[in-house]
From TrEMBL, chain A:
UniProt gene name: gatC
Protein's UniProt keywords contain Ligase: yes
Self-association and partners: Heterotrimer of A, B and C subunits.
Highest taxon of the lineage: Bacteria
Name of the protein described by the UniProt record: Aspartyl/glutamyl-tRNA(Asn/Gln) amidotransferase subunit C
InterPro entries assigned: GatC
Automatic annotation (TrEMBL), chain B:
Upper taxonomic lineage: Bacteria, Pseudomonadati, Pseudomonadota, Alphaproteobacteria, Rhodobacterales
Enzyme Commission designation: 6.3.5.7
Keyword Ligase: yes
Keywords attached to this entry: ATP-binding, Ligase, Nucleotide-binding, Protein biosynthesis
Encoding gene per record: gatA
Entry function: Allows the formation of correctly charged Gln-tRNA(Gln) through the transamidation of misacylated Glu-tRNA(Gln) in organisms which lack glutaminyl-tRNA synthetase. The reaction takes place in the presence of glutamine and ATP through an activated gamma-phospho-Glu-tRNA(Gln).
UniProt name for this protein: Glutamyl-tRNA(Gln) amidotransferase subunit A
Pfam families tied to this protein: Amidase (PF01425)
Presence of keyword Plastid: no
Length: 95, 494
């Protein structure tokens, strides 16, 4: 399976990474090479095998559904590139 | 006492206990060693003030008779661990300026034990890489040099940690291992690297790469030190839902040196085409050492080994694409300068294009692709099924009574920096051929320096243990270390 330039553009957009049109052929080639490597997996008989989610045969732990932390908006916002009046600030989202 | 930075954890602890040395002296020795080692580019954020304060507190604690085994021991911390008030950016531009308001559980445990923070260590960006060349800080350099004096990679992703331990800039360091990132750099630098069982060490506050594979562990000068430091790092942590509820034993007390009757598996599938003679010979030497110590050597088969690497390079990028979605220029780190009329999508796309390096971008896009509609079953689900088969191979070996598996850690010794520049990505991924299998199965593994190649560079062997049997694994490694008697150190050129 090889990736076309159009597919590479689409993947980059889904990943929210800006890629110049000039870089698309090289990106498509690289991604195709990696996918080709992965295709070895098609040789394996996986009939009746359950996909693995976690390595330990354990049930995820549960806890009371209560608030355990909070009340620290200043700390939460302290690393934001743009924070105003207690909020994260972003460019206009809706026209 | 001179050259205090060259001490092991165990040696320093004993000297501290006897009052022959103070933590302040140990810490100063390491801080001067770090100052003189900028050519290695191992420490990327230094914290000398914090170190001196912590050392003074440790000395008070030792005088009060309340010392724990790591009290007063100066350590380096891989940049992937969040340390409160200290830049923590996983060697990525996208986290430029990020100083966490909280502490990772591993570093919390170390500070509670009295360890001393020297600074943050270089690594491959987001722990993705095998050479420590993909770092916003620039490459880290191996203290060992090639036969013609060329500079070598310390391995990756925990390359700064390995270089710092090998060059005696700290007594020990933390690392993380998602596909071999502790064991491969340990093998390249003649040091010991232990990746614990998945769930043994908390992942809370460790910047995530691939959550079902990531595990933190110690990088040390000796196996005994790995036992001491794992005991301080490990805990049952309610903040990490995959942290295991097993009590943490006193690992050091389990180093009996007696491995009589232990069954060691030699997996035939690891004898890959093109395995260099030197690596094959080293593997045989290690096998003979364990046999002479009374272990029973058994040939075993792990039939799906060949598929571990492609399965890993589906699963790890898939998880990474999801984990790294949080770096969007909103909550922390860097935001790209925006043009007139740019909206939020342009902000995401420009921020991530500027902030992530090429290898991270590549893995995010591969992960995005294998998780996208229409390809999920063909790639991601298939890889997860193959992963189940890889784990089943190990389960069967364990059911047959195998206590541990012995294999090479890497297919070569350390290679020159820049050697992978022109290689395609898949060639670099082949570095991980012996290490990724146990990450997929969640097992513990340890790399021990066992010999040197023709150019005098260190070579390592790894032992792969049973889940949560780090004590037994460390004991086997201890016997291998003792039999190998590896004492070589790099010449001090930096």
């Amino acid at each position: 399976m090889s990736i076309t330039e159009d597919e590479a553009r689409k993947v980059a957009h889904l990943a929210r990474i800006a890629v110049d049109d000039a870089q698309l052929p090289a990106l498509a080639r690289e991604l195709s090479g990696i996918l080709h490597f992965m295709e070895q997996l098609n040789e394996v008989d996986i009939e009746g095998v359950e996909p693995m989610t976690g390595v330990q045969p354990m049930r995820l732990k549960r806890r009371e559904d209560v608030v355990t932390a909070g009340g620290m908006p200043d700390k939460i916002l302290s690393n934001a590139p743009d924070a105003r009046e207690g909020f994260f600030a972003v460019p206009k989202v809706v026209e | 006492m001179s050259d205090l930075n060259r001490l092991t954890i165990a040696g320093a602890r004993d000297a501290l206990t006897r009052g022959e040395v103070t933590s302040a002296e140990l810490t100063d020795a390491c801080l001067s060693a770090i100052e003189g080692a900028s050519a290695l580019n191992a420490f990327v954020h230094k914290t000398p003030d914090m170190a001196r304060e912590m050392a003074a507190a440790a000395d008070r604690r030792i005088r009060a008779g309340e010392a724990a085994p790591m009290t007063g021991i100066p350590v380096g911390i891989k940049d992937v661990f969040c340390v409160r008030g200290v830049p923590s950016q996983a060697a990525s531009r996208i986290l430029e300026g990020f100083t966490p308001e909280y502490e990772s559980t591993v570093t919390r445990n170390l500070w509670d034990a009295g360890a001393v923070m020297l600074g943050k260590l270089n690594m491959d960006e987001f722990a993705m890489g095998s050479t420590n060349e993909a770092s916003c800080y620039g490459r880290a350099v191996n203290p060992w040099k090639g036969a013609a004096g060329e500079e070598l990679t310390p391995g990756g992703s925990s390359g700064g940690s390995a270089a710092a331990v090998a060059a005696d800039l700290c007594l020990a360091a933390t690392g993380t291992d998602t596909g071999g990132s502790i064991r491969q750099p340990a093998a390249f630098t003649g040091t010991v690297g232990l990746r614990p069982t998945y769930g043994r060490v908390s992942r809370w506050g460790v910047i995530a790469y691939a959550s079902s594979l990531d595990q933190a562990g110690p990088m040390t000068k000796t196996v005994r030190d790995a036992a001491i430091m794992l005991g301080a790092m490990a805990s049952c942590d309610p903040q990490d839902s995959t942290s295991a509820d097993h009590p943490v034993p006193d690992y050091e007390s389990l180093l009996s040196g007696d491995i009589r009757g232990k069954k060691i598996g030699i997996p035939r599938e690891y004898r890959i085409d093109g395995l260099p003679d030197e690596i094959a010979a080293l593997w045989q030497i290690g096998t003979d050492m364990l046999r002479e110590a009374g272990a029973e050597i058994v040939d075993i088969s792990l039939p799906h080994t060949k598929y571990a690497l492609p399965a890993y390079y589906v699963i790890a990028p898939a998880e990474a694409s999801s984990n790294l979605a949080r770096y969007d220029g909103v909550r922390y780190g860097r935001r790209a300068r925006l043009g007139q009329g740019d909206g939020i999508v342009e902000m995401y796309e420009k921020t991530r294009a500027e902030g992530f390096g090429p290898e991270v971008q590549r893995r995010i896009m591969i992960g995005t692709y294998v998780l996208s509609a229409g390809f999920y079953d063909a790639y991601y689900n298939r890889a997860r099924k193959v992963r189940a088969l890889i784990k089943r191979d190990f389960d069967r070996a364990h059911a047959d009574g195998i206590d541990a598996i012995l294999a090479p850690t890497t297919p070569s010794s350390a290679f020159p920096l820049g050697a992978m520049d022109q290689a395609d990505p898949v060639q670099m991924y082949l570095q991980d051929v012996f290490t990724v299998t146990l990450n997929l199965a969640g097992l513990p593994g340890i790399s021990v320096p066992v010999g040197q190649d023709r150019s005098g560079l260190p070579l390592g062997l790894q032992l792969i243990g049973r889940p949560f049997e780090e004590g037994e694994l460390l004991n086997l490694a201890f016997v291998l270390e003792r039999a190998a008697g590896f004492v070589a150190k790099p010449d001090h050129w930096w």
